[in-house]
Write a structure and sequence with these properties.
Blueprint: E1 2-4, H1 15-37, H2 40-46, H3 52-74, E2 76-89, E3 91-97, H4 111-125, E4 130-136, E5 140-147, H5 150-158, H6 172-182, E6 191-197, H7 206-215, E7 218-224, E8 231-232, E9 234-237, E10 240-244, E11 254-255, H8 259-268, E12 273-275, H9 283-291, E13 296-308, H10 310-326, H11 333-338
Parallel strand pairs: 3-4, 3-6, 6-7, 7-12
Antiparallel strand pairs: 1-2, 2-13, 4-5, 8-11, 9-10
Helix pairs in contact: 3-10, 4-5, 6-7, 7-8
Length: 343
């Protein structure tokens, strides 16, 4: 088991693409400046010991030093002591709609990404509750069984997209039924299911499934992703938008939030319906509702001690920084013989 102690530092890695762009701009500027000054052959005679490849290697060493420095600041840690501890919490299953309609952009950046970001924030708020993730479209699949491993939940959540379920559609009932099967009823305690969807159910009887789940003691909450006015569904090819989804008659399909169904599901499930906005998806309100419920006691294995590994990354950063310092853009006499770092 590993973790990042200072994960905020990883945002600094976004500077690397900016450095590459700046370096490319400088390369072009230097080349044009040399061309204005003299022809290529004359420049070789004027500065015979200048090495373009050494200039590139010098920049590569700088980038590597920066990369390992940031990783060192982030301080990856490895768990060294695993202990069995008792916890009290509720079992929470989140069913996330991954149908194509969740790509509609009436929430920013789109419905699915907005839901995923809110779920990642939710994981930061959880402490002793167990959580599982179900993804559904035309069918429902367990993405993550119920666990207290929030790091694994984040990892699996980042992998979620509309292509993880091969059959398109919106089978909310199938997701509820799968959640029913995922809970352990022998341990007692309260269990809750949060359905995150735009509510366009086309496949099954979600109302009857919610009723069955509630009879087994599962509270069913719903979060509506989207707006009643709806939005068209973008179509992408090779990462670029090429238009919007159309029906058989060539008309643009507009996906609208079905609040009526989601309210009915939450009502039958003894839960709460919330419409998501760009400001808040609504998980906080649901957690407040669940905080006063009876919690079940269970045992789980957790890492209680972690060892720092920042020193290895800082050592690598120091090594590359030294190479950056000692690397000269001019060829030395011995380097001309060895042809090291030469084109």
């Amino acid at each position: 088991m590993y973790r990042i102690e200072h994960d905020w530092a990883l945002w600094l890695l976004a500077l690397i693409p900016l450095m590459l762009i700046a370096w490319w701009a400088v390369i072009r500027w230097r080349k044009k400046a040399r061309e204005r000054f003299a022809e290529h052959r004359l420049m070789q005679q004027l500065i015979p010991r200048y090495s373009e490849s050494r200039y590139r290697w010098k920049f590569i060493f700088f980038l590597m030093a920066f990369l390992f420095l940031i990783l060192g600041i982030a301080n990856p840690q490895i768990g060294t002591k695993l202990e069995e501890v008792k916890r009290e919490g509720i079992d929470l299953m989140i069913a996330l709609d991954v149908s194509n309609s969740m790509k509609a952009e009436d929430l920013s950046p789109n419905r699915l990404e907005r839901a995923k970001r809110a779920m990642l924030q939710l994981l930061e708020e959880l402490h002793s509750d167990r959580i599982g993730i179900i993804v559904f479209a035309g069918q429902a699949y367990t993405q993550l069984p119920i666990t207290t491993d929030y790091a694994a939940a984040k990892l699996f959540l980042n992998m979620v997209d509309t292509d993880v379920v091969p059959t398109q559609g919106t089978a909310i009932g199938a997701a509820i039924e799968l959640a029913e099967e995922s809970f352990n009823y022998e341990e007692g305690g309260n269990k809750a299911l949060i359905i995150v969807t735009d509510g366009e159910n086309h496949e099954d009887d979600a109302i009857e499934a919610a009723k069955s789940a509630n009879e087994k003691g599962i509270k069913v909450f719903t979060i509506g992703m989207g707006t009643p006015n709806g939005a068209p569904i973008p179509v992408f090819r090779n990462g670029r938008q090429i238009g919007f989804r159309q029906d058989a008659d060539g008309n643009t399909v507009v996906s609208s939030l079905n609040e009526e169904m989601l309210r009915e599901i939450a009502g039958i499930g003894d839960g709460l319906y919330i419409r998501a906005t760009n400001a808040s998806v609504g998980f906080e309100r649901i957690l407040d509702q669940l905080s006063g419920l009876e919690k079940s006691e269970f045992e789980s294995q957790v890492y209680t001690d972690y060892e720092d590994r920042f020193q290895f990354f800082l050592a690598a950063a120091f090594l590359f920084f030294i190479l950056f310092i000692v690397m000269n853009e001019k060829k030395s006499k011995w380097a001309e013989k060895v042809k090291l770092f030469e084109e």
